[in-house]
């Protein structure tokens, strides 16, 4: 019996108003807890229990994986052997309530593999993630469970289910079929084998990219720092010290590389840093990922064909809003020509300035000369903006915005609950005075932390079982911390990332669903709430209240705000092409029956085919494209950012049309109809209910400053 059930069913004696278990029962429960790996035990403490980060030892994970799988298997078998007739409650509900220990374990494991990776973690990852993958594949393809679900599905019209129960049953059945439930035993075994192999390849890809990202370029001459802002130089010095070196270290991650490329006047060093960054996973050595990518593509196509899909893209998109690759490509190709045309204009502006330096714009020059154009066109210097964008102030700003829009409050309680790293901050979250969550904020880059920014939940909300009413959510960024007592200053792009990831947290913190199986949303909806949240960053209220100079405390000058507004669509050609080229290659890579065997040639030839400007590169080149090859998550799904932004731009229009972007009535409709409802209703139908129609692509074109044809 699960510990939680044992505790709930223990006989209770009431003595003088104090509830007590019997001595024998207390001993029994204590023995059970002692025998169980600590990583699986029920979380204790405030907020319905919190992860015991202070008690975790990496060496405990193997035993915990083994025990969690045994426990989950026992729960699964109990469902299959439930006495009496097959019912919704003893099949679907029971399955929804199972796996608590596995869920707790993977919440903790996910942080170690993403935020705290080291050789010991990577060794366990390589050994155990394939085993866990095979375990879940076997359960998914167990004919006995499918027979129970199919029995219910076939008579669903007579079961007196409410709309949410019916949607859960139908989605459960469809998911099982999509993943191979109707296959014969031999083909099921093939799918399980492929899933296991893919898990191994994903781990290998992640490990190789992370190894390259932990490399750095050491600068040992002060003259080589020419053009770099003092605060950034201090950060590079701190990075070098952390590596045990003297001088200045440019770590091979976006948060360090991008400001270097924007500011360094040393063109030779810009090229060196750019090449190191864009060649991650593509150096021909032990960390080269090209062969791993080819193996992943082959396995994905084999799986798709066994499951009855023409391509991996069709398989992955069967449960999305777009539904099929052609619809996603259609949206991307509506935007691509305008984006490329804008890049041509941007390059012409830059080349006019670069001519004076006697150079022709190359990819390592783009960001540097873009900043020169920004200064020339708008008298706007990114480094003049940064002093007003202090990280702590921007954190306060995003909290305030959530309060004004959704009635949420965030009260810091760092130090009152365990954290996995000393720099992690925590906040109690309330909405309309009621505690709804605990928010963990892990802002800074460090060795062992994967690149990029992401949000996760350690516990998501659902009403089933009556225990998951307080969400444990986390945002994870990779900002370069300030050094020598200087606060961390971030760019507008970094501040947008901060608001973006917080939008994901807002989504999950506002969840109000019953069934956990209806909590996740389609991939092309996932980025929508986060992209909507970016819009409030540059509103007058946020800038006037929180954009204050880190030294003087003076608010950002109105003239500077006007310059920021005037340059709102500046460099949108670059930003759009950088992203969209990655998304188009993702779709072309996976929407084909013959797997690509030479990723480098495919990348080169496909970019030439679509007219990629030679002055820039994809945001994520294939050899380092974690979204595609660290797991299946965004494969044939990177288009979803554009899909979501189309809804985002249309949603922002709903606020601006009110004449007040803080309009509470619109915010509450957005929250209650789209944020709170998970996947309880079809997401496009939910959007239509909110907006009264489908999203209009003209708003994203306007947002990016592209012609709309009107």
Structural account:
By secondary structure, the protein is an alpha+beta fold. It is built from 29 helices and nine strands. It has helices at 3-9, 23-35, 61-80, 88-97, 100-114, 119-140, 143-154, 163-178, 185-213, 230-242, 254-263, 267-278, 290-306, 312-317, 325-354, 366-378, 382-385, 391-406, 492-509, 523-534, 540-546, 558-566, 572-590, 599-610, 626-629, 640-656, 664-675, 683-691, 698-703; strands spanning 12-15, 18-21, 216-219, 248-251, 408-412, 425-431, 434-444, 454-459, 471-479. The strands form three sheets. The protein has a five-stranded mixed β-sheet, with helices on both faces. The chain has a two-stranded antiparallel sheet with strand order 1-2. It has a two-stranded antiparallel sheet with strand order 3-4. Strand 6 and strand 7 (434-444) form a beta hairpin.
Distance between the termini: 65 Å
Point out poorly predicted stretches.
1-23, 29-33
Instruction: Indicate the radius of gyration in whole angstroms.
Output: 26 Å
Tally of individual helices: 29
Mean pLDDT comes to: 93
Outline type: globular
Strand order, largest beta sheet: 5-6-7-9-8
Share of residues in helices: 40-55%
Would you tell me the structural class of the helices and strands?
A: alpha+beta
- Kindly estimate the percentage of residues that lie in beta strands according to DSSP: 5-15%
Number of strands: 9
The profile of the biggest β sheet is: 5 strands, mixed
Question: What key attributes describe this structure?
Answer:
710 residues, alpha+beta, 29 helices, 9 strands, two-stranded antiparallel ribbon, 55% helix, five-stranded mixed β-sheet
């Amino acid at each position: 019996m699960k510990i939680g059930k044992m505790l709930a069913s223990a006989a209770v004696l009431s003595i003088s108003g104090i509830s007590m278990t019997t001595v024998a029962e207390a001993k029994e429960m204590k023995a059970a807890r002692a025998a169980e790996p600590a990583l699986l035990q029920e979380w204790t403490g405030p907020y319905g229990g919190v992860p015991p980060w202070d008690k975790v030892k990496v060496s405990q994970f193997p035993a915990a994986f083994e025990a969690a799988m045994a426990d989950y298997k026992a729960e699964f078998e109990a469902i299959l052997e439930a006495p009496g007739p097959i019912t919704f409650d003893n099949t679907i509900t029971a399955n929804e309530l199972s796996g608590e220990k596995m869920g707790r374990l993977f919440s903790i494991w996910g942080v170690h593999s993403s935020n705290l990776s080291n050789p010991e973690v990577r060794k366990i990852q390589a050994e155990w993630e394939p085993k866990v993958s095979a375990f879940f594949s076997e359960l998914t393809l167990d004919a006995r469970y499918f027979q129970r679900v199919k029995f219910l599905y076939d008579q669903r019209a007579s079961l007196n289910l409410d709309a949410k129960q019916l949607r859960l049953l139908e989605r459960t059945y469809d998911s099982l079929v999509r993943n191979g439930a109707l296959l014969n035993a031999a083909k099921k075994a093939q799918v399980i084998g492929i899933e296991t192999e893919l898990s191994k390849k994903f781990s290998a890809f992640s490990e190789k990219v992370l190894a390259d990202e932990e490399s750095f370029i050491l600068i040992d001459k002060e003259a080589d720092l020419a053009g770099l802002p003092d605060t950034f130089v201090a950060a590079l010095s701190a990075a070098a010290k952390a590596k045990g070196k003297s001088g200045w270290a440019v770590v091979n991650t976006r948060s360090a590389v991008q400001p270097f490329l924007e500011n360094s006047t040393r063109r030779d060093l810009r090229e060196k840093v750019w090449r190191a960054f864009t060649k991650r996973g593509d150096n021909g050595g032990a960390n080269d990922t090209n062969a791993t990518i080819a193996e992943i593509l082959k396995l994905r196509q084999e799986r798709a064909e066994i499951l009855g899909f023409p391509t991996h893209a069709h398989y992955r998109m069967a449960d999305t809003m777009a539904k099929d690759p052609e619809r996603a490509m259609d949206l991307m190709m509506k935007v691509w020509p305008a984006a490329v045309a804008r890049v041509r204009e941007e390059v012409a502006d830059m080349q006019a300035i670069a001519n004076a330096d006697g150079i022709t714009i190359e990819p390592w020059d783009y960001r540097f000369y873009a900043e020169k154009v920004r200064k020339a066109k708008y008298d706007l210097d990114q480094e003049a903006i940064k002093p007003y964008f202090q990280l702590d102030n921007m954190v306060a700003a995003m909290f305030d915005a959530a309060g004004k829009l959704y009635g949420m409050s965030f009260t810091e309680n760092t130090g009152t609950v365990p954290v996995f790293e000393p720099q992690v901050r925590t906040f109690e979250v309330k909405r309309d005075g009621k505690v709804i969550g605990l928010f963990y904020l892990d802002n800074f880059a460090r060795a062992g932390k994967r690149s990029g920014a992401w949000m996760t939940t350690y516990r998501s909300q659902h009403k089933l079982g009556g225990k998951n009413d307080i969400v444990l959510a986390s945002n994870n960024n990779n900002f370069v911390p300030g050094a020598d007592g200087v606060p961390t200053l971030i760019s507008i792009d970094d501040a947008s990332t901060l608001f973006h990831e917080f939008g994901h947290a807002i989504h999950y913190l506002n969840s109000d669903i019953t069934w956990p199986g209806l909590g996740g949303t389609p991939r092309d909806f996932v980025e929508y709430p986060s992209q909507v949240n970016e819009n409030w960053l540059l509103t007058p209220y946020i800038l006037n209240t929180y954009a204050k100079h880190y030294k003087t405390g003076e608010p950002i000058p109105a003239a500077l705000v006007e310059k920021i507004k005037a340059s709102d669509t500046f460099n949108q050609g670059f930003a759009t092409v950088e992203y969209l080229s990655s998304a188009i290659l993702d779709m072309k890579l996976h929407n084909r029956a013959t797997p690509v065997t030479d990723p480098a040639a495919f990348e080169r030839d496909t970019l030439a085919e679509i007219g990629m400007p030679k002055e820039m590169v994809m945001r994520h080149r294939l050899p380092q494209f974690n979204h595609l090859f660290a797991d299946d998550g965004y494969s044939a799904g990177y288009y979803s950012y554009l899909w979501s932004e189309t809804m985002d731009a249309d949603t922002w229009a709903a606020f601006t049309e009110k004449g007040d972007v803080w309009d509470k009535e619109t915010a509450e409709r957005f929250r209650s109809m789209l944020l709170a409802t998970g996947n309880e209703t079809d997401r496009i139908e939910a959007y239509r209910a909110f907006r009264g129609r489908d999203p209009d692509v003209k708003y994203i074109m306007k947002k990016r400053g592209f012609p709309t044809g009107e």
